[in-house]
Design a protein that fits this description.
The complex is a heterodimer of chains A (about 290) and B (about 230). Chain A is of the alpha+beta class and about 290 residues long. Chain A is built from ten helices and four strands. Chain B has one domain: P-loop containing nucleotide triphosphate hydrolases (Rossmann fold), CATH 3.40.50.300. Helices cover about 35% and strands about 25% of the residues of chain B. Chain B has seven helices and ten strands. In chain B, the strands form two sheets. Chain B has a six-stranded mixed β-sheet with strand order 6-7-8-3-9-10, with helices on both faces. Chain B has a four-stranded antiparallel β-sheet with strand order 2-1-4-5, with helices on one face. In chain B, a hairpin with a 2-residue loop joins β4 and β5. The longest helix of chain B is centred in the last third of the chain and has 16 residues. The model of chain B has no long low-confidence stretch (mean pLDDT about 90). Classes of the chains: A alpha+beta (about 290), B alpha/beta (about 230). The interface between A and B is medium-sized, with 15 and 24 residues. The structure holds adenosine-5'-diphosphate (ADP) and magnesium ion. Adenosine-5'-diphosphate (ADP) binds next to β2 and α1 of chain B.
Chain lengths: ~290, ~230
């Protein structure tokens, strides 16, 4: 094994230019793909916090007595997709309304009775945060006899989620394309390396070297290229990330845009993918070469 | 067809033909070489000497007929087992075929490394081999910096280092001055004296007269008796 490493490193040194090209290609692909992934990770975070904020308000019929509230609450809680329910009494609702309209709140002083109904504020689970499921949920809630009316953000909630999902799909597709492109570029540089060493390889075969003995150093070379490309790509992204986030956070409230970099686990996964690119590139060109 | 019970023979060729496209390089060659035999293959340039050796190490496929080497039938051998055949053979090529990017030591060590031998063993064996051919001081040199005779010595060291049963030598003294040629031939005779089987292709009649061994004459691809 040490021997194979020695051969691989010797090879990288004698083919510096080709190796540099390969490593830069991998680094660029990793940079682009992981920039996409980074965007989606953050956008996803944002979506999730937004989804958590989706509320359904279920207004109760005016004749409900307080003794039944616990019963109603447990009924609502029993509907699939409901995460949390909070009772908002009409007094509470009035208070909130006053707060919301502040200056014009004097208008409300003229009212003799509180016209607002009692209500339950319902938060839904993340999985249920798309248009069909919300609608479904609303219908179910409306069918409860104690509930008068249900209010929620209707169609546009779901649309927004759908657009985001589509966006994500495009991202996956682009990542896939970059992955394949990187593999083929690695394959063709390894092919050039093999070509430049074909005489040597032929001699190795003539003195009794197996295909495996000849191939292993190439695989090691590919994996080293992948690892170096991955490190460079991720480092470049990290540098860009730091640069952008320190400059942008001044302008925007950091509350709204709380961005983060990859977790260690995701970084490692990207590194592994990068090494896989190197390995696959080798695999393809060696398979062609050994068929000849 | 082939007498597989012929225990003393390590190489058997049976009605072997070799065509390069329409060009007939070898025609109906029959040969049996016993263990520890020294056989010369001779004939003018273009007679098919190199081709005959190439067939033996599967550098070229046989067009017709059968070859058996140390119990392996070359027309049936799978791609995966070709290295096993080549490890039974030590090959000395007409053009040396040393790897230009590797040192003398690494060129010789390659054979043992490919066999998966341990580092220490490789170190010891290669050093003693280089001493045998008198090149121990140049272990770190690159092949291009050596003279033809020196390169051929390295090629001999590489052919012998893996302890093969058979050595195939293609014009081992062909491009050397007579002094270097003597050194090389002495090395090959040493291998023969230790019980190895040796096939030498050469057009150098002097070399053959010196030994008085079995000779095969080729002419335009045919075996001719003298
Ligand atoms: N790879 C090849 N393709 C076509 N013809 C070849 C090839 N190798 C050898 N020959 C031809 O086969 C004949 C025998 O060649 P070779 O075995 O090299 O002869 P020798 O070694 O006795 O000089 C020659 O006529 C040569 O031109
Ligand atoms: Mg020849």
């Amino acid at each position: 094994m040490i021997l194979f490493f020695k051969i691989a490193i010797q090879d990288i040194r004698t083919n510096r230019f080709l190796n540099a090209v390969t490593i830069i290609t991998i680094a660029l692909s990793i940079l682009i793909v992981s920039a996409l992934i980074l965007f989606f990770v953050n956008a996803n975070d944002y979506m999730n916090s937004w989804k958590k904020g989706i509320k359904i308000i279920a207004y109760l019929k005016p004749d409900i007595v307080e003794a039944n509230l616990v019963d109603i609450k447990s009924k609502i809680q029993g509907v699939y997709g409901v995460a949390e329910t909070d009772f908002i009494s009409k007094e509470e609702a009035m208070k909130r309304l006053r707060k919301q309209i502040k200056r014009q709140s004097s208008l409300l002083d003229g009212l003799k009775d509180n016209p607002l109904p009692d209500a339950f504020e319902i938060r839904i689970t993340e999985q249920s945060a798309n248009s069909e499921k919300i609608e479904n949920l609303a219908v179910q809630l409306e069918s409860l006899p104690e509930i008068d009316d249900v209010e929620y953000g209707r169609k546009w909630i779901g649309r927004f989620v759908k657009v985001f999902e589509l966006f994500k799909l495009t991202g996956y597709a682009m990542s896939g394309i970059f992955f394949i492109a990187a593999v083929f570029i690695v394959a063709s540089t390894i092919r050039l390396v093999i070509y430049s060493r074909r005489e040597e390889i032929e001699i190795m075969r003539l003195v009794g070297a197996t295909d495996r003995f000849i191939k292993v150093p190439f695989y090691i070379e590919g994996i080293i290229q992948g690892a170096l490309g991955g490190i460079i790509g991720l480092a470049a992204l990290f540098a860009t990330f730091i640069y952008i986030s320190t400059n942008v956070e001044h302008g925007l409230s950091s509350d709204l845009l709380h961005v983060r970099f990859f977790s260690l686990r995701l970084s490692c996964t990207i590194m592994l993918c990068s090494m896989l690119v190197g390995w696959l590139g080798c695999f393809i060109s060696l398979r062609q070469f050994l068929k000849e | 067809m082939i007498d597989k019970n012929n225990k003393s023979a390590t190489i058997l060729m049976f009605h072997v033909h070799k065509n390069y496209g329409s060009k007939k390089a070898l025609i109906d060659i029959n040969l049996d070489v016993s263990k520890n035999e020294l056989l010369f293959i001779t004939g003018p340039s273009g007679a098919g000497k190199s081709t005959l050796l190439k067939l033996l190490y599967l550098g070229e496929p046989v067009s017709e007929g059968q070859i058996l080497i140390d119990g392996m039938n070359l027309s049936r051998i799978s791609r995966k087992r070709i290295p096993l055949l080549r490890r039974k053979l030590g090959i000395i090529f007409q053009d040396y075929k040393l790897i230009p990017t590797k040192t003398v030591f690494d060129n010789v060590a390659l054979v043992l490394e490919a066999m998966g031998k341990k580092r220490q063993f490789v170190q010891k064996k290669v050093n003693s081999m280089l001493r045998t051919v008198g090149m121990e001081k140049r272990f770190n040199a690159m092949p291009q910096s050596l003279s033809g005779g020196e390169q051929q010595r390295i090629a001999v060291a590489r052919a012998v280092v893996g302890s093969p049963k058979i050595i195939l030598a293609d014009e081992p003294t062909g491009s050397l001055d007579s002094e270097s040629a003597c050194v090389i031939f002495d090395l090959l005779e040493g291998f023969h004296a230790r019980g190895g089987t040796l096939l030498v292709a050469t057009h150098d009649e002097k070399l053959i007269r010196k030994t008085g061994c079995k000779v095969i004459h080729l002419k335009e691809g045919r075996q001719i008796s003298k």
